[in-house]
TrEMBL record:
It is found in: Cytoplasm, Cytoskeleton, Microtubule organizing center. PANTHER family: MITOTIC-SPINDLE ORGANIZING PROTEIN 1. This is Mitotic-spindle organizing protein 1. Transmembrane segments: none annotated.
Length: 123
């Protein structure tokens, strides 16, 4: 027995009512595929909006950290502060990290004091 299969589907983009029968299932399958793609696209947009909000929040947080660093006179540039933040996020003890940064600065100062400048060597 051949039973006609009729269904009505409201097409969102044009808000018109389309009628499909069993012999024209390809149209219905295309429409369903379009709906699936539409749902996936919507989810991706929601995810990207969430990701953009997270990026914006992280940027604002880092800007606040940079300003705090400047106010405290740490002398850390953007790259160094970024490295320190990543190390802290990875579980490094901030107090130990601060001690290491201070010691490294002392070493750099001592090494530059020991190396004679090029103008001194010419004399």
């Amino acid at each position: 027995m051949n039973i006609e299969f009729w269904c009505s589907v409201e097409i969102q983009s044009s808000n018109t009512l389309g009628t499909y029968n069993k012999s024209n299932t390809q149209d219905l399958e295309k429409y369903i595929q379009t709906l699936k793609i539409s749902v996936i696209t919507q989810k991706l947009l929601e995810m990207s909006n969430t990701k953009l909000a997270q990026i914006k929040e992280a940027k604002e947080t880092f800007q606040a950290l940079m300003e705090l660093s400047r106010l405290l006179g740490t002398g850390l540039d953007v790259e160094t502060l970024s490295i320190c933040v990543r190390l802290c996020e990875a579980g490094v003890n901030p107090e130990v990290l601060a001690t290491v940064v201070r010691e490294l600065r002392k070493e750099v100062e001592n090494s530059t004091d020991e190396v004679p400048s090029s103008s001194t060597q010419l004399k």
